[in-house]
Each structure stands twice: as C-alpha cells, then as structure tokens.
Amino acid sequence: MPSAEKGGYDFLLAGTIKGNAASGRVLEKAGFTECETTLQDFENSFFGKCDSVWYKIARPGKTLEELGVLPGTGSAKDGLLFARSADDKSKARAQRAEAEA
What we know:
The structure is a single chain. This protein is α+β, with helices and mostly antiparallel strands. It has helices at about 20-30, 65, 75-80, 85-100; strands spanning about 10-15, 35-45, 50-60. It has one domain (about 5-75): 3-Layer(aba) Sandwich (Aminopeptidase), CATH 3.40.630. Helix content is about 30%, strand content about 30%. The chain is built from 4 helices and 3 strands, in the order βαββααα.
C-alpha cells in the first residue's frame, strides 16, 4: 500500500446520514472514528436534505492525531473535506494556501 507521499492515502473517509445509527456502529466496529457532522449537505431522494456524519480511520502505523486530520487539530488540508458552504470553501482554500506558503 503506497504512502501518501507516493500517491497513496494515510486515512480513509466514510460517511452516513445522521439518522443512520446502524451504519455508524458498523464503521465504529471496523475501527473508524466519528469526526464531524455537516449540516444539510446531502440530498436524499426519500428524506430530502440530510445532515451527514463523517468517520475516519488511519492507515496501519499511523494515528488520526499524528496525521492532524481530526477536527480542531489545525489541518487546513482537512478543512476542504468539511466545508459547508461556498464561503467556507473559500476560507478553507485561503487557509490551505497560507499553510502551504
């Protein structure tokens, strides 16, 4: 499995709609950690607009904390995954550009 530096990934991201507790339990049993809830960001044909719950799991030998991909760890790169609006996306891009400069 290639590292992030060689085109691989250091963590996986999975999501469920907020009311789907069973899927969340399956992800947690598989080792995923609940990391973020985004509001009204998913259009479900049955329920309409739904909140999403996002889970992450680090690759073997890494932790989410060490990768800086838990909310509140200051990772600008991670902010792009959870931007809730166009304004949030613009802010996340600016933060990422600043962090990479």
